[in-house]
Amino acid sequence: MTSEDIAYVAVDWGTSSFRLWLVSKNGDVLHEERTDEGMSVAAEIGFSAVLESHLDRDGLSALTPVIVCGMAGARQGWVEAPYVETPATLSEIAANAVSPKDARREVHLLPGVCQRAEGAYDVMRGEETQLLGLVLSGLEDGIVCLPGTHSKWVRLEEGRIAAFRTFMTGELYALLSGHSVLRYSLALPEDFDQVADEVRSAVAQAIEKPEQATAQLFSLRAEDLLADTSKERLAARLSGHLIGLEIAGAKAFAGNAGLQSVVLAGAGRLATLYGAAFQAAGIEARTVDADDLARRGLHAAAGHLFLKG
Amino acid sequence: MTSEDIAYVAVDWGTSSFRLWLVSKNGDVLHEERTDEGMSVAAEIGFSAVLESHLDRDGLSALTPVIVCGMAGARQGWVEAPYVETPATLSEIAANAVSPKDARREVHLLPGVCQRAEGAYDVMRGEETQLLGLVLSGLEDGIVCLPGTHSKWVRLEEGRIAAFRTFMTGELYALLSGHSVLRYSLALPEDFDQVADEVRSAVAQAIEKPEQATAQLFSLRAEDLLADTSKERLAARLSGHLIGLEIAGAKAFAGNAGLQSVVLAGAGRLATLYGAAFQAAGIEARTVDADDLARRGLHAAAGHLFLKG
């Protein structure tokens, strides 16, 4: 790779992670970097400084443009890229990118998407770019699940983000396993297959009786005190309860058409976990790699903003 | 008060609080102390040392016996007082008190109660003593709600603790308001009346759609970003969602007879909050003071163990 091959730099800048790709004109990734210089870190050091430190090392010319998605465009980020409202199209998202004044090169921050429906206020930042990638890969209509700290469920209609709903599944798991009374009773299973049944049965239980959610949580602690269930199985059950509760809510979100199939935008452990959960819920899931989608979305936005045919 | 008037010392020793009462033979409280020397603190200093430091100051003879309920009897406490199983009677609880060997006087630690039913494992420590107090005040059958960090719902049958269920309501509120992304969006209302409607509507919503629980949580954050709803109203709604979810679960717990009325063992802000929630849920609630119940329960147990007619 020479710096001439590089058409632009793509960055997915989250709250706690920074991912950078050097990309050729036709979208090939020539180089990839991942660090923990997320928004929280960059807000102290300076966003431009963090970005340029990477590009300096890569020996990049100041003429190479950068496209960024994620929390760097939040109010507490580099500069605010105000939300585009649902229903949101691909071209609207690219058209509403903003450029920070203190950047030492051409930088475009993509906006997030918001939903203002009464009682269903919601926001996303970063996932809209993955959804762009998905639409460009041919999915124009359907239900998409993007699991994570704040899991998003999205209804795509004619290539637009029609509506979405965020579930605090990942953050609740982190809080409960790290800071609640349950922290003494859980251990991460080394081999997922050994606890997959636990996940599935907890998912089914949560879908059937979502109102028992907060009682099921404490019951894990009690079971640890009273029975000899392993902490790995209890942790699997906690995951299952929270994901099951999410799926129960997503079923209502999917509406009358029901939730027969879903596109799961994930990877690794989380995709495996959600895969088992969808199995238990009788939902057909097709998994697509979330990172790959983000890069495709950034490439599409780059095409809109500065890549010339 | 002279030390001759004092028949015994009653202690409610929780995880983070220590409450002590000097009590006359007929159950009158002659003196009360409250500190934060809960189990976590006492485990470091020593339980006997904490207790004796109070009794020394009070000038109490080494002949005065002490009765203790709460987490001091847990495995990580002073000495373990193993759980009594449901259905549990008053006399069983008193009969299963244990005495720590390193105590410098007669000390009785009351056991907690556990439930081993498959899929509904549960434990309590401290609440059983409040329930004793309630039974002695004449309630032998009914549903009791003891709100708190780990809210307990109990079915009393013929004066026994027949079954119970714990909801993590208070702990979830603390985690979400203190450590989650919601922490930026909430503020404690100074005047409860101003937000009572928010609590009631969130309770009704959670009872109607418990499966939306974790989505409703994130929606509070989004509403803070997108609308000009006050942080006090959002905090009230968070309380309402969590308590509503608890009530939805408690309705199933109450069984076929339904949940028309409940005894609410609480005090202060929490009792007001739950009172509003029960109103929204169409449940008739009678409030009794929880501290008062604990003291009555301890007095009853003292009667069983050492108070002579």
UniProtKB/TrEMBL annotation, chains A, B:
Keywords: Kinase, Transferase
GO biological process, alphabetically ordered: D-galactonate catabolic process
Pfam families listed in its UniProt record: DGOK
One of the record's GO molecular function terms: 2-dehydro-3-deoxygalactonokinase activity
Protein name: 2-dehydro-3-deoxygalactonokinase
